[in-house]
Design goal:
The complex is a heterodimer. Chain A is mainly α. The N and C termini of chain A lie far apart (42 Å). Chain A has helices at residues 8-17, 19-27, 33-46, 59-72, 74-77, 103-113, 124-137, 149-154. Chain A is 50% helix and 0% strand. Chain A contains 8 helices and no strands. Chain B contains 7 helices and 38 strands. The chains are: A mainly alpha, B mainly beta.
Chain lengths: 164, 584
């Protein structure tokens, strides 16, 4: 593709970050960045006032998970998890009462069938950390106890979007 | 985008409001449109009658997905031919707002073109000039797109009367006024995100809009459905997986497995006017791992012959029994008359995902011949007219096998064309194999994929340098006449014309014109801004022939393609929809 004025990666970045993405955000289910930031703050506050939304992972885990997600999942699900060729992994269209997912449903699914090109190919711990990141991005608070593979694979906590 | 909106006719604003209600984004779009000057006049529009559809093979336009009821992908237009194609020039273009795969062909009636984008927009243009006429944007804002496996895509529209028909990712069939884009009716066949989605172009037969649902990866029980073209009323539903009481029901374990048995019917069928029969391809069984559902698992991986009146199944032919490799039988069947070993047959031909090219008697579903068009080991041969599979190449929990072709298939959805002049079929082929193994089964969960297998798409050792190929197959023998190997995958449909040409687009963004007889490259477009998976089509307006195609790389290859998707040459293919129209 040398005939292109710019490299294809630059092209891709432009599209994901530019007006195209803004439009997609309008029609699909993306969370604007501001909203995501608000969500993260909310997650911080959750540690003290956890209440109905349980703390299932640590902040450090979610941070590692964010990196693993960027490297292995963002190409298809979007850098902001807004969805592209794969569905959005944040927001009310993803973690909905209608979908009725439990944490274990999603964890078992992603750890066996994702990334789509080479399902199940990542180290198990990466999937656990990515699950922590997905919880964070759907408004679940961080806590003091790390998510383990066993806990993720058996958790019956419903996955419902708790962001604003 | 703004330029387009500001040139919108009043009818489109109306349709937007109707379709999208209060969404702020689209209200803004409508407001912009409100600032406009005069809209371009709509070119004259001749209703698409049954008679015209029946005679589509001889029309100047491109009235349906595969041009005519025989699904030939062949046009009688010959103004552009092997002698002058070198002079083909771009006459207009249009950039879409999406970076997913753009698969739809331009569908053209008179001087009006209708084309869809990945997210269920329909754009109407003046076909000769590219002047935008109206746009319909389907509202997907509350849809999770959870059960859309192989890229967010749409394969185009159907025409009938003064309407345009679209099948959507949230399972609506929508009828639009062809001249304004206003919604005439819309009918939702099932809620989205629970297993079903629609990506196919509908087919209209005698006042019925016929569609099928995708969902074989999500344990949907697939179906083909017919709606009344005037009212949108559902007329019949034929499930592709029989219940235990129906014929074929005993090919499934009697434990309710039919309810999650897959069999998506996700590509457009073919219609035989002589026998009043619809041929529709049926997809893979669910879950992928076959050990969980002993039996042949009808009608998965089959072609079913249906009565368009009521959807009753007349006969079927199964390409891959008890599939465990995701070899959908959805690939289009093309009607053609052949002479095999001295005997004349009225046939349908198909290049199956399983790597075999089939010729089947279209009156009774009997196999005429099957030949390999790529390396094919899972289906190892034929006995008494039926395929035989290699049990050693069946994966199980903890058992990994290496077999060919990969689940992406010797050919995937990108359609073949059949040329009556050369009597060849033109097949966009893929050279891949795979490792595949069973994993501990997970309970079925609506909205999540139902596979129970992991896999990796790899190179076919027999083709170490080529992911793709364009093949010409002699219909009377099933043997290859010529081929054009490609380093990159070749994921585009074929267009054959009476000009002695075969058009198809490459993954590195060139539309090619091959000599239909020899495969010599007669013309290659300048490089487009993305790779091509859009089905090319041709039409003639005012005595001038045009060829149009979407560039817009995507589809299943970059998502599920394993080593092929990770090949840097494939990863670097730029994305983004861009429609190009050429003429002499």
């Amino acid at each position: 593709m040398n005939a292109l004025p710019d490299g294809s990666r630059a092209w891709r970045r432009r599209l994901l970050g530019g007006a195209g993405a803004a439009l997609l955000a309008g029609t699909a289910s993306a969370q604007p960045l501001a909203q995501q930031l608000a969500m993260t703050q909310n997650a911080g506050a959750g540690q003290e006032t956890a209440g109905a939304v349980p703390a299932l992972y640590t902040a450090a885990q979610a941070a590692t998970g964010a990196d693993k997600f960027a490297a292995n999942c963002a190409l298809c699900h979007g850098k902001k998890l807004q969805g592209r060729v794969g569905p959005a992994l944040t927001g009310p269209n993803f973690a909905s009462a209608k979908a009725n997912f439990k944490v274990s449903d999603v964890f078992l699914f992603l750890s066996r069938q994702m990334p789509a090109q080479q399902p199940g190919s990542l180290p198990k711990q990466d999937y656990v950390d990515i699950m922590a990141f997905l919880l964070q991005q759907n408004g679940y608070p961080a806590g003091g106890v790390p998510l383990t593979e066993a806990a993720a694979a058996s958790s019956t906590v419903p996955l419902l979007y708790h962001g604003k | 985008m703004h330029a387009l909106r500001t040139r919108c006719p009043r009818g489109r604003r109306l349709s937007l409001r109707l379709a999208l209600g209060g969404s702020a984004l689209f209200a803004a779009g409508a407001a912009l449109a409100g600032t406009t000057a005069a809209a371009p006049p709509m070119p004259a529009y001749a209703p698409v009658t049954d008679a015209r559809l029946a005679n589509a093979a001889n029309e100047d336009g491109w009235l349906m997905y595969r041009h005519d009821y025989g699904s030939t992908g062949y046009s009688k237009l010959s103004q552009i031919n092997a002698g002058n194609v070198a002079g083909l020039k771009q006459v207009w273009d249009y950039k879409s707002d999406f970076d997913q795969g753009h698969e739809a062909p331009p569908v053209v009636n008179g001087d009006v073109m209708f084309i869809t984008t990945p997210k269920d927009e329909v754009h109407a243009f003046q076909a000769s000039t590219g002047k935008p006429l109206w746009t319909y944007k389907h509202d997907l804002s509350a849809v999770g797109l959870k059960t859309v496996c192989c890229d967010v895509v749409n394969r185009g529209v159907a025409l009938y009367g003064n309407n345009v028909y679209l099948a959507t990712l949230d399972n609506y069939v929508v009828a639009l006024n062809a001249q304004t884009g206003a919604v005439v009716w819309k009918t939702q066949l099932m809620a989205p995100d629970l297993g079903g989605a629609m990506t196919l172009a509908p087919l209209v037969v005698k006042g019925r809009v016929i569609v099928g649902l995708s969902g074989g990866e999500y344990g949907l029980r697939g179906s083909v459905r017919a709606l009344d073209a005037n009212s949108g009323k559902l007329l019949w539903t034929t499930y592709t997986i029989p219940s235990p009481k129906e014929p074929g029901g005993n090919t499934w374990p009697n434990n309710g497995s039919y309810k999650t048995g897959g069999g998506g019917a996700w590509l457009t069928g073919t219609y035989d006017q002589d026998t009043d029969t619809l041929f529709w391809g049926v997809g893979n069984p669910g879950p992928w791992l076959a050990t969980l559902r002993p039996g042949d698992n009808l009608y998965t991986d089959s072609v079913i012959a249906l009565d368009p009146e009521n959807g009753h199944i007349k006969w079927h032919y199964q390409y891959t029994p008890h599939d465990t490799w995701d070899y959908d039988g959805t690939n289009e069947t093309v009607m053609t008359d052949i002479t095999y070993k001295g005997v004349a047959h009225k046939a349908i031909v198909t290049a199956s995902r399983n790597g075999w090219f089939y010729a089947i008697d279209r009156k009774n579903g009997k196999l005429i011949y099957a030949t390999r068009f790529v390396s094919a080991t899972s289906v190892s041969g034929f006995k008494n007219g039926h395929p035989v599979t290699d049990s050693a190449l069946r994966p199980a929990v903890g058992k990994q096998v290496f077999t060919c072709p990969s689940f992406l298939g010797g050919k995937n959805w990108w359609p073949i064309a059949v040329d009556p002049q050369t009597h060849y079929a033109y097949v966009p082929a893929m050279h891949t194999c795979m490792t595949i193994k069973g994993v501990d089964p997970v309970a079925y969960k609506p909205g999540l994929a139902f596979l129970d297998e992991t896999f990796n798409v790899m190179r076919d050792p027999a083709f170490p340098n080529n992911w793709g190929d364009v093949e010409a197959i002699d219909l009377d023998t099933g043997k290859q006449a010529w081929h054009f190997p490609s380093k990159l995958p070749w994921n585009d449909g074929m267009l054959a014309t009476a000009g002695g040409l075969v058009f198809s687009g490459s993954a590195d963004g060139h539309l090619y014109a091959f000599d239909a007889k020899t495969g010599a490259v007669k013309w290659k477009s300048p490089q487009m801004t993305s790779g091509i998976i859009g089905v090319p089509s041709t039409w003639s307006v005012g005595g001038k022939q045009y060829v149009g195609v979407w560039a817009g790389w995507g589809g299943a290859t970059p998502i599920w393609g394993g080593d092929m998707a990770k090949d840097p040459a494939v990863q670097d293919i730029p994305t983004g929809g861009h429609l190009y129209v050429f003429s002499l």
